[in-house]
């Protein structure tokens, strides 16, 4: 009788990913071997966190039950309180094979590890070359979550998983940054926002780590007399300030935006001028004090963060139909930005003209899950949607024209990011194998003809 394998995962998809620039990663990431004492400390700390979560959930349930007022007719209120997991439609996922996520069972004592017969042949893959990009891939498989570090070499057409990190909760957003808090040297770090309100920050030059370098936020605990600070609900988006490198911004379901001072590990400024979830945000490319936000109430707001006392009452606004899923600044024409909404529409606007939209187009039939400008071709725009399609647009200040579209057959496309060194190369995350894919839009004849790209460049 044949031995049965492990059951297939009913939920298996990539909700977030991020490129790491070439040449910043260590060629051989440091490998951590924990002592028994260190492992016991981590297990003890994890158990305490679980106890605190359980105790506080019980307190919150009791508090809520004491004063609950049920109104079945209040559809707007029910919509505002949706769990972000609902947006991923977990119940609709098919069973799929060919995906692996590290589990705690894989963490063994160094003395118990058996040498791999293919160790010599795999040694070259262990080395990260200066010509390699890393791609940080958030992976959800049933109730397990991880961030996989993939190596991508464009010249060699190589793509493989190098190592991974276990995550405490489902990842919703990933942001790379080279600021290493507490160090005077550039780092190779990433921040991850999850269904959990705590932001975790990881050192990508350390392999096999089972805990983050540091965390931003605390749930607090009545039992252990810990104060809550930071977000109170899921973190939906992150943006690193490349001009003030110690500043990281986060937007949350709790209707707040927090500017974190990573050197202090504390909120620097908290912006509360929102009526709904803060779903997307981005710092301006050159104006360090300016941050753009998009909310599920349809408002896009631009804040000047220099005056912390006045920031909540001094935003510039734009209003569009539907929920704002994505906002993105143009990288070279930096007065302009794009807005993507949950009904599949794209809107183009100028920060100098509040409350005015330059053009709108019904780009997709479902919500926008990714948008990218092209720094080498200022009039080229790409968009993805949960319908599963990539589209390329040729746009100017008055209209956008459809150029090309590509179907990946990966189910719902959840995210799209752009290679820093080659803006024509894009990475996508979906829900069906291979779940993460790389595609160069120069492969399209229509794209080459429209934008005057030589065939030899494809």
TrEMBL record:
Region ranges (Disordered): 44-90
Any Gene Ontology CC annotation: nucleus
InterPro entries reported for this sequence: PWP1, WD40/YVTN_repeat-like_dom_sf, WD40_repeat_CS, WD40_repeat_dom_sf, WD40_rpt
WD repeats: 228-270, 361-403
A Gene Ontology BP annotation from the UniProt entry: rRNA processing
Biased composition (Acidic residues): 49-62, 69-78
Superkingdom, taxonomy of origin: Eukaryota
SUPFAM superfamilies listed in its UniProt record: WD40 repeat-like (SSF50978)
Keywords: Phosphoprotein, Repeat, WD repeat
Protein name in UniProt: Periodic tryptophan protein 1 homolog
Origin species: Drosophila pseudoobscura pseudoobscura (Fruit fly)
């Amino acid at each position: 009788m044949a031995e049965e394998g492990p059951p297939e995962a009913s939920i298996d998809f990539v909700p977030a990913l991020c490129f790491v620039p070439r040449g910043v990663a260590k060629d051989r990431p440091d490998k951590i071997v924990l002592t028994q004492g260190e492992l016991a400390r981590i297990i003890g700390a994890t158990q305490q966190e679980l106890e605190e979560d359980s105790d506080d959930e019980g307190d919150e349930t009791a508090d809520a039950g004491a004063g609950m007022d049920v109104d079945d007719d209040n559809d707007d209120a029910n919509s505002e309180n949706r769990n972000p997991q609902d947006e991923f439609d977990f119940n609709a996922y098919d069973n799929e094979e060919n995906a692996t996520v590290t589990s705690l069972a894989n963490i063994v004592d160094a003395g118990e590890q058996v040498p791999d017969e293919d160790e010599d042949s795999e040694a070259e893959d262990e080395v990260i070359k200066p010509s390699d990009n890393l791609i940080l891939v958030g992976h959800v498989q049933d109730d397990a979550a991880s961030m996989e570090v993939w190596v991508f070499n464009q010249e060699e057409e190589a793509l493989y998983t190098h190592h991974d990190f276990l995550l405490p909760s489902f990842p919703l957003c990933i942001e790379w940054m080279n600021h290493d808090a507490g160090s005077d040297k550039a780092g190779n770090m990433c921040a991850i926002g999850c269904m959990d309100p705590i932001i975790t920050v990881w050192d990508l030059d350390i392999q096999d780590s089972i805990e983050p370098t540091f965390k931003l936020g605390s749930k607090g605990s009545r039992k252990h007399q810990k104060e809550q600070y930071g977000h109170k609900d899921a973190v939906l988006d992150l943006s690193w300030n490349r001009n003030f490198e110690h500043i990281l911004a986060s937007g949350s379901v709790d209707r707040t935006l927090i500017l974190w001072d990573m050197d202090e590990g504390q909120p620097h400024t908290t912006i509360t001028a929102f009526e709904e979830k803060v779903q997307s945000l981005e710092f301006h490319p050159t104006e360090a004090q300016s941050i753009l936000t998009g909310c599920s109430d349809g408002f896009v707001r631009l804040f000047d963060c220099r005056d912390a006392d006045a920031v909540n009452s001094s935003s510039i606004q734009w209003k569009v139909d539907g929920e704002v899923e994505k906002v993105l600044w143009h990288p070279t024409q930096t007065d302009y930005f794009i807005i993507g909404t949950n009904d599949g529409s794209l809107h183009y606007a100028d920060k100098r003209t509040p409350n005015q939209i330059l053009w709108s187009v019904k780009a997709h039939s479902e919500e926008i899950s990714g948008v990218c400008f092209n720094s080498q071709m200022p009039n080229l725009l790409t968009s993805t949607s949960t319908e599963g399609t990539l589209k390329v647009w040729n746009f100017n200040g008055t209209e956008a024209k459809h150029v090309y579209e590509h179907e990946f057959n990966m189910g719902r496309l959840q995210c799209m990011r752009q290679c820093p060194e080659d803006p024509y190369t894009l990475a996508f995350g979906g829900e069906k194998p291979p779940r993460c894919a790389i595609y160069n839009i120069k492969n399209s004849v229509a794209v080459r003809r429209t934008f005057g790209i030589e065939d030899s460049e494809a």
